[in-house]
């Protein structure tokens, strides 16, 4: 975003951010032109908050996946076993299809 001396025409999202970060009490009081510096600062704060939220959600997701993996390991599930089971079923289906085609 440039520092235009004329200001910045806020969009609906910009207006929401300006109210959310308490630069204005409500959307009706926001003027048609807002300082570019103020908009840049508000956008920077919003980016930081979004990044923090994404990092927290990623951490929760990683922890959850680790716990699910530990639970499945205790239950005896493994990827190698699942692949071997799938391969056996696949080979049985192929043999049945070949035997049906020969008839």
TrEMBL record:
<protein>
    <submittedName>
        <fullName>UPF0389 protein CG9231-like</fullName>
    </submittedName>
</protein>
<keyword id="KW-0812">Transmembrane</keyword>
<keyword id="KW-1133">Transmembrane helix</keyword>
<dbReference type="InterPro" id="IPR009432">
    <property type="entry name" value="DUF1075"/>
</dbReference>
<dbReference type="Pfam" id="PF06388">
    <property type="entry name" value="DUF1075"/>
</dbReference>
<keyword id="KW-0472">Membrane</keyword>
<dbReference type="GO" id="GO:0016020">
    <property type="term" value="C:membrane"/>
</dbReference>
<comment type="similarity">
    <text>Belongs to the UPF0389 family.</text>
</comment>
């Amino acid at each position: 975003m440039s520092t235009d001396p004329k200001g910045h025409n806020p969009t609906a999202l910009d207006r929401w951010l300006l109210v959310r970060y308490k630069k204005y009490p409500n959307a009706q009081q926001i003027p048609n032109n807002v300082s570019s510096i103020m908009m840049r600062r508000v956008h920077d704060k919003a980016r930081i908050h979004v990044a923090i939220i994404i990092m927290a959600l990623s951490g929760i997701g990683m922890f959850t996946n680790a716990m699910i993996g530990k639970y499945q390991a205790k239950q005896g599930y493994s990827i190698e076993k699942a692949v071997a089971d799938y391969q056996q079923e696949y080979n049985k289906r192929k043999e049945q299809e070949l035997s049906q085609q020969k008839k």
